[in-house]
Design goal:
Radius of gyration: 19 Å
Number of domains: 2
Number of strands: 0
Largest sheet: none
Shape: elongated
Order of helices and strands: HHHHHHHHHHHH
Strand content: under 5%
């Protein structure tokens, strides 16, 4: 069973599960504007106007800008969890990351923009994004340890250190692809996965 199924419900999970059309529309517009302009210059009035609601109508669904920001991040996290298997094969999971870029470009762009804007410890989303990054690194390290216990991966590698490197590659690829969508994602990921597999495995693969 995945963590998303066994863990406690998230604050916005119930809201998102309802699938209420107006809220879904607001969230979609917010994702697009945040990806383009970031949270500092995107206003609730702009989001409301493009979503076809009044500012008061938007606040009926989301009580503040912070609530809306957390809700759009919840959409991104939920999308990731629906398309991942945290107990599955690490190599396969990494190989399919490129599919997420194409499936949800607005979510990828929004997250990258929010991440850059919230690097400062005093930024409103810093703690949440830092916790998410650490959770991702922990999950990758757990995948490496599973492979080590199964005898598939070398045991002289430090899973925690290697996980940071892998996370850095994935974050860097997000930014590179957003800057240049012509990057041959499948080829880049395939080559990276082959190189990673050779390093993790006891015996080099052809």
């Amino acid at each position: 069973m995945s963590d998303s199924q066994s863990g406690p419900p998230r604050p916005y999970e119930t809201l998102l599960a309802k699938g209420e059309q107006r809220r879904v529309q607001i969230l979609a517009v917010a994702q697009r504007l945040l990806a383009r302009n970031g949270w500092r210059t995107t206003t609730l009035a702009q989001i409301a106007r493009e979503a076809g609601v009044t500012p008061a109508g938007l606040l009926h669904h989301f009580e503040s800008k912070d609530a809306l920001l957390h809700a759009v991040l919840e959409v991104r996290d939920t999308d990731d969890e629906l398309h991942s298997d945290r107990e599955g094969d690490l190599i396969e999971q990494i190989e399919h990351v490129a599919d997420r870029y194409r499936r949800s470009p607005d979510l990828v762009g929004m997250f990258a923009m929010l991440l850059i804007e919230n690097l400062d410890p005093d930024a409103p989303l810093h703690d949440r994004l830092l916790a998410r990054h650490r959770a991702a690194v922990t999950s990758i390290a757990a995948g490496i340890r599973r492979g080590q216990r199964a005898g598939r991966y070398r045991t002289d590698l430090d899973p925690a250190v290697k996980a940071v490197e892998i996370a850095a590659f994935l974050n860097g690829m997000e930014t590179s692809w957003l800057l240049d969508p012509s990057i041959p994602l499948n080829r880049v990921f395939k080559e990276y996965v082959r190189s990673l597999e050779r390093e993790l495995m006891h015996v080099s693969t052809p």
